[in-house]
C-alpha cells in the first residue's frame, strides 16, 4: 500500500507507518537537520528508511501532482507549537499552523485514509471551536474556504453542511475519529498524551475505532508491589520503599492481577545501556554524557521505575525535567540521545544528525515509532479488508454479467 508522509521530522511516525506495511511515495519535511537524519540513515543502508524519497521544504510548495494516484494513506504531525502548552497558544493566528495545508493536500491526493497526530493542547477549551473546525475540514475537505471568508465563518458553513444532508460539494468526505491517547497505555516507556485524528474515505464504508490499550499503571504496580516480578526482572534484591500515595491502590490490586500488561518504565527502556560516563558507552552511537542538568520548580526529572515524563523539544534547547533521569540516589542527569531514542522507541541502529540540543529537539517532536506502527497497522488492516470486499463485489458483477 502507498503512503505519503507530511511533517516527517526525524521519521518516527513515518517508520511506524512503514513497519505497518506502507511504502512511502514522498516524505516531506522542512527542517534541514531532521532531513539529514533520515538521509544519512538511508545512505548507509538502514533498512527502515533506505530508498525513501525525502524532500526538504514546505509541504505547501511541493509538487503533489507528481506523487501519482491511488494513495492509500496520508500521515503526519503538523507543527504542534500553535497548540502546545509550551507554545504561544495562537492557534489559527500562528503562521506555523499547518492544518489548512494538511486539508488542502487531503483534497488533492484523496487518500483512502489519513493519520494526523498532534499535542493534547489542541483539545483545550480555549481551542474548542478551532479543534472542531479542524475535524470538520478533514471530514469535508472539498468544502473549502471562500475568498474573504474568515475561519469562523467557514466553520459555521461547515456545520451547516454537516447537518444539511446535501450531497453537493460532498463527493470527497471522510469518516473522522479523533482520540486522545497516552502512549504509556500502548507499551511506550513514556507518559506522552497526544491526539490522533484518523479518517477513512466515506465511500469505503469502513468502520474503525482506535486500538484498545494494552498496558496499564495497575499492572505495573502489581508487578512492583504485589508479585515483585518487576524487581526480579531487573535483578534488584531490595526494592525501594513503596510510595505512600500508591499504598491504597496496591491493596486493592492484591485481590486480582490486572489483565493488561505493565506500563514500561525508564529502567525497562534502558536495559543494556551502560552509564554514559563509562568507557563502555563509546560502543553505543549517540550515547554521550551531557553535563548541566539541574532541578527547578516543575522540572524534577523522570524516575527510573515509571514511564518517562513527556520528552520535550523546547524553543531554546532542552527545557529541563522532562528530559532528565532521576538516579537511584536522587540526583539527576540529562538523558543521552540514545536513551531518549529508546524512550521514543527508535531502534538502536538509527542515528541522529546534529548537536545534542538539535537531536533532542528532533526526538522531542517525534511520534514514538512503535505507537505509530500500532495505529498504522490498525488502519492497514481495515484498508486491506475494504480492498478485498471491493474485489469481491467486482468479481461478483463480472460473473453476473457473464
Tally of individual helices: 12
Helix and strand string, N-terminal first? EHEHEEHEHHEEEHHHEHEEHHH
Gyration radius (Cα, Å) is 23 Å
CATH topology of the largest domain: Rossmann fold
| Cα-to-Cα separation, first versus last residue | 31 Å
Keywords summarizing the entry:
seven-stranded mixed sheet; globular; single chain; 402 residues; Rossmann fold; 11 strands; 2 domains; alpha/beta; two-stranded parallel sheet
General description of the model:
The chain has helices at 12-19, 32-43, 99-109, 128-139, 151-164, 217-225, 229-233, 247-253, 266-269, 337-343, 356-365, 369-401; strands at residues 2-6, 23-29, 54-56, 73-76, 113-119, 174-182, 193-201, 215-216, 261-262, 324-326, 332-334. It is of the alpha/beta class and 402 residues long. It folds into 2 domains: 2-213 and 368-393, Rossmann fold; 215-365, no CATH class. The strands form 3 sheets. Strands 3-2-1-4-5-7-6 form a 7-stranded mixed sheet, with helices on both faces.
TL;DR?
The protein has helices spanning about 10-20, 30-45, 100-110, 130-140, 150-165, 215-225, 230-235, 245-255, 265-270, 335-345, 355-365, 370-400; strands at about 1-5, 25-30, 55, 75, 115-120, 175-180, 195-200, 215, 260, 325, 330-335.
Outline the fold blueprint.
Layout: E1 2-6, H1 12-19, E2 23-29, H2 32-43, E3 54-56, E4 73-76, H3 99-109, E5 113-119, H4 128-139, H5 151-164, E6 174-182, E7 193-201, E8 215-216, H6 217-225, H7 229-233, H8 247-253, E9 261-262, H9 266-269, E10 324-326, E11 332-334, H10 337-343, H11 356-365, H12 369-401
Parallel strand pairs: 1-2, 1-4, 2-3, 4-5, 8-9
Antiparallel strand pairs: 5-7, 6-7, 10-11
Helix pairs in contact: 1-12, 4-5
Amino acid at each position: 500500500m502507498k503512503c505519503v508522509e507530511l511533517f516527517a521530522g526525524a521519521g518516527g511516525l513515518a517508520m511506524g507507518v512503514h513497519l505497518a506495511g506502507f511504502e512511502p511515495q514522498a516524505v516531506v519535511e522542512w527542517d534541514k537537520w531532521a532531513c539529514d537524519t533520515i538521509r544519512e540513515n538511508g545512505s548507509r543502508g538502514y533498512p527502515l528508511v533506505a530508498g525513501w524519497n525525502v524532500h526538504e521544504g514546505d509541504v505547501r510548495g511541493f509538487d503533489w501532482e507528481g506523487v501519482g494516484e491511488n494513495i492509500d494513506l496520508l500521515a503526519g504531525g503538523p507543527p504542534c507549537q500553535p497548540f502546545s502548552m509550551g507554545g504561544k497558544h495562537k492557534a489559527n493566528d500562528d503562521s506555523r499552523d499547518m492544518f489548512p495545508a494538511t486539508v488542502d493536500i487531503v483534497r488533492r491526493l484523496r487518500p483512502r485514509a489519513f493519520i494526523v497526530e498532534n499535542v493534547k493542547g489542541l483539545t483545550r477549551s480555549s481551542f474548542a471551536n478551532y479543534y472542531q473546525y479542524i475535524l470538520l475540514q478533514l471530514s469535508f475537505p472539498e468544502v473549502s474556504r471562500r475568498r474573504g471568508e474568515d475561519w469562523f465563518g467557514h466553520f459555521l458553513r461547515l456545520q451547516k453542511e454537516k447537518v444539511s444532508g446535501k450531497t453537493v460539494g460532498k463527493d470527497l468526505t471522510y469518516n473522522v475519529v479523533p482520540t486522545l491517547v497516552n502512549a504509556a497505555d500502548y507499551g511506550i516507556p513514556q507518559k506522552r498524551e497526544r491526539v490522533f485524528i484518523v479518517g477513512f474515505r466515506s465511500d469505503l464504508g469502513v468502520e474503525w475505532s482506535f486500538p484498545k490499550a494494552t498496558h496499564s499503571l495497575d499492572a505495573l504496580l502489581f508487578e512492583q508491589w504485589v508479585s515483585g516480578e518487576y524487581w526480579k526482572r531487573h535483578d534488584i534484591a531490595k526494592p525501594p520503599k513503596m510510595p505512600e500515595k500508591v499504598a491504597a491502590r496496591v491493596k486493592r490490586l492484591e485481590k486480582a492481577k490486572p489483565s493488561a500488561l505493565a506500563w514500561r518504565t525508564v529502567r525497562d527502556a534502558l536495559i543494556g545501556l551502560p552509564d554514559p560516563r563509562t568507557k563502555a558507552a563509546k560502543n553505543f552511537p549517540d550515547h554521550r554524557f551531557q553535563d548541566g542538568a539541574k532541578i527547578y520548580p516543575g522540572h524534577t526529572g523522570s524516575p527510573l521505575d515509571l514511564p518517562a515524563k513527556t520528552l520535550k523539544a523546547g524553543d531554546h534547547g532542552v527545557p529541563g525535567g522532562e528530559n532528565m533521569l532521576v538516579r537511584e540516589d536522587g540526583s539527576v542527569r540529562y538523558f543521552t540521545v540514545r536513551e531518549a531514542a529508546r524512550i521514543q522507541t527508535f531502534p538502536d541502529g538509527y542515528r541522529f544528525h546534529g548537536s545534542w540540543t538539535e537531536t533532542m529537539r528532533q526526538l522531542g517532536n517525534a511520534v514514538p515509532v512503535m505507537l505509530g506502527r500500532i495505529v498504522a497497522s490498525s488502519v492497514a488492516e481495515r484498508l486491506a479488508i475494504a480492498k478485498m470486499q471491493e474485489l469481491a463485489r467486482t468479481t461478483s458483477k463480472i460473473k453476473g454479467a457473464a
